[in-house]
Structure formats: structure tokens, C-alpha cells
């Protein structure tokens, strides 16, 4: 199975930017559709972005859609989340996750289909 490790979290000021990275090992990342999620204290986990195995298509059910973007580099076995115009409300633990997918060009839109998770990286945004 695939192992996922997030990095790039930390402290940012409101209005600033951060780029999170998710590194995969154990199996080629190209086998998996990927997603980014976050969970703030006292809140349910939020599904932010999904990207297909090929990287050709993305999907976001979240209000962060206009500020955050997802990308992947299968050659480097990494997925990134670019976060711009950060707000204090973005403070949360951010997770990447992988879903087995037969279709190379379809994001996995159902958060319950993600089977493999990283340990998370903390993002704190100060006002």
C-alpha cells in the first residue's frame, strides 16, 4: 500500500501563502487519485480538493476553491496544495489522502472512498 507524508505546514500571516506537499512511497502515486482535506479543532473534516490520477482533472466542493489549488507530479510522487490569501479560518491540520481508482482522468469526489491518509501537517494563520 502507499504511504503518505505531508510537509510544508507552519505559521503564516493572513493574506499570505503556503504550499503544502504530500510525498508518496511504497507504490507509484500514479495508481491513485488524490485529495486534500483539513480539520479544524472542534469541526468536522472538510474535503478541499481532488485530482485525478493523470492530473488532467480536478474537483473541489469547498469554498476555498478560489484561493487554493491542487496539483501533482507523478514523476516525483508528490501532490501539492497551493494556498493563497490565507485567512485565520484556514487554521487546521491538513491531510492528503489517496484513493484507488480505475479511471485515470476522473477525480474521486466521494470523500469516503479515500483509503490511505497521511499524518497531517498543521497550518496556523495569524491575523
Q: Given the helix and strand composition, which structural class is it?
A: mainly beta
Q: Supply Rg.
A: 14 Å
Sheet with most strands: 7 strands, mixed
Average pLDDT number: 97
What's the helix-strand series?
A: EEEEEEEEEEE
Q: Which segments are poorly predicted (pLDDT under 50) over 5 or more consecutive residues?
A: none
Shape: globular
Helix content: under 10%
The counted number of beta strands is: 11
Measured between the Cα atoms of the first and last residue, the distance is 40 Å
What this model shows, in words?
The structure is a single chain. The protein is built from no helices and eleven strands. It is mainly β. The strands form two sheets. Strands 2, 4, 5, 6, 9, 10 and 11 form a seven-stranded mixed β-sheet that branches. Strands 1-3-8-7 form a four-stranded antiparallel β-sheet, with no helix packed on it. Strand 4 (32-39) and strand 5 form a beta hairpin.
Keywords:
about 130 residues; seven-stranded mixed sheet; globular; four-stranded antiparallel sheet; mainly beta
Layout: helices, strands, pairs:
Layout: E1 3-7, E2 10-13, E3 18-25, E4 32-39, E5 46-51, E6 58-59, E7 68-73, E8 78-83, E9 92-100, E10 116-117, E11 121-126
Parallel strand pairs: 2-11
Antiparallel strand pairs: 1-3, 3-8, 4-5, 4-9, 5-6, 7-8, 9-10, 9-11
Amino acid at each position: 500500500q502507499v504511504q503518505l507524508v505531508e510537509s510544508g505546514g507552519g505559521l503564516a500571516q493572513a493574506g499570505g501563502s503556503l504550499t503544502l506537499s504530500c510525498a508518496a512511497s511504497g507504490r507509484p502515486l500514479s495508481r491513485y487519485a488524490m485529495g486534500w482535506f483539513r480539520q479544524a479543532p472542534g469541526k468536522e473534516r472538510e474535503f478541499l480538493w481532488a485530482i485525478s490520477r493523470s492530473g488532467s482533472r480536478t474537483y473541489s466542493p469547498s469554498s476555498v476553491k478560489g484561493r487554493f489549488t491542487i496539483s501533482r507530479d507523478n514523476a516525483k510522487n508528490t501532490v501539492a496544495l497551493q494556498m493563497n490569501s490565507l485567512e485565520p479560518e484556514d487554521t487546521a491540520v491538513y491531510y492528503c489522502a489517496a484513493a484507488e481508482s480505475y479511471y485515470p482522468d476522473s477525480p474521486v469526489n466521494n470523500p469516503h472512498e479515500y483509503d490511505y491518509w497521511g499524518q497531517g501537517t498543521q497550518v496556523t494563520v495569524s491575523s
